[in-house]
Amino acid sequence: MERVRGAGAVLAVLVVLGAPPAAGEELSGVFQLMTNHECHFINGTERVRFVERHIYNRKQFLHFDSDVGVYVGDTPRGETLARHFNSKREWLEYKRSAVDRYCRYNYKADAPFTVERRVPPSVSISLVPSSSQPGPGRLLCSGMDFYPAPVQVRWFQDGQELPEHVVATDVVPTGDWSCQVLVLLEIPPRRGVTYSCQVEHVSLEHPLSRHWEMPPDTVHSKILVGVGGFVLGLVFLALRLGFYLREKVKGGPQMEGVAPPLLSHSLWAPLAPSAPFLSPPFLSPQSS
Ligand SMILES: *[C@@H]1O[C@H](CO)[C@@H](O)[C@H](O)[C@H]1NC(C)=O
């Protein structure tokens, strides 16, 4: 398998506009003559291949491949040119030396900012609304602005890897020497579970992890506060009734020594006109 690890290509592009059209004549087109120099680095500079391509209007008509060692014509006109160049021994030797003179030489200068370029990803987790599924949405892990492209993103749930229900985009090159990847967890996140997105990349000494937990639900907590308040109110009411009953038993002569039956007259006494409803009964035990 041949891998192009970097192409130190020099483009010599000659664009010739068609001759100015005569009156009433359409522009006949754009004529483009291009020479392309490619360096194929296979396993670093271990094996290098140099390819020179001559192209006219997007059609290659002549090329030199260092693996072949001579010019080869791709069209009848190219074959004529190949015979011409191949007859020039010194020129051919010069092209054959391009793998060292041009490719390996430039590799040293170019590799630090190409082959050796390392930019770590910025990783974040976001909750995205799901258009097709109801519920809280889905968790999306974004890896941004990293280089080179190979990357591994994994989802964990309470430390346990989730190999299924994970869908990832291709690694997208942004065109400015950086890449992006998005990895979606297809199951809805649950409360009380910690979700982690772990990214491994050649720029990172250790895998990078981000964690996410469902934030407290505001509606839910409001209900809790309401219920809590209601219960507290009930407790106070019970205490107040308890006090009232005890004082009633102590202070009411007609009830002395007798445990007041539940819902007895005394319990409802404050409602009677003799005891004003608004006065707290336990503050005026002798009132009735
Ligand atoms: C790549 O090159 C190194 C030497 O630079 C060599 O040891 C290694 O075997 C090569 N790997 C392959 C896959 O050819």
Automatic annotation (TrEMBL):
InterPro entries, A to Z: Ig-like_dom, Ig-like_dom_sf, Ig-like_fold, Ig/MHC_CS, Ig_C1-set, MHC/Immunoglobulin, MHC_I/II-like_Ag-recog, MHC_II_a/b_N
GO cellular component: MHC class II protein complex
Signal peptide extent: 1-24
UniProt key word Transmembrane: yes
Principal localisation: membrane
Stretches assigned to the Ig-like domain: 121-209
Transmembrane segments: 223-245
Entry protein name: Class II histocompatibility antigen, B-L beta chain-like
UniProt KW Coiled coil keyword: no
Location relative to the cell: Membrane
PROSITE patterns named in the record: IG_LIKE, IG_MHC
Gene3D superfamilies found in the cross-reference section: Class II Histocompatibility Antigen, M Beta Chain, Chain B, domain 1, Immunoglobulins
Membrane topology (UniProt): Single-pass type I membrane protein
Cross-referenced SUPFAM superfamilies: Immunoglobulin, MHC antigen-recognition domain
GO BP, sorted A to Z: adaptive immune response; antigen processing and presentation of peptide or polysaccharide antigen via MHC class II
Organism: Pipra filicauda
Keywords: Adaptive immunity, Disulfide bond, Glycoprotein, Immunity, Membrane, MHC II, Signal, Transmembrane, Transmembrane helix
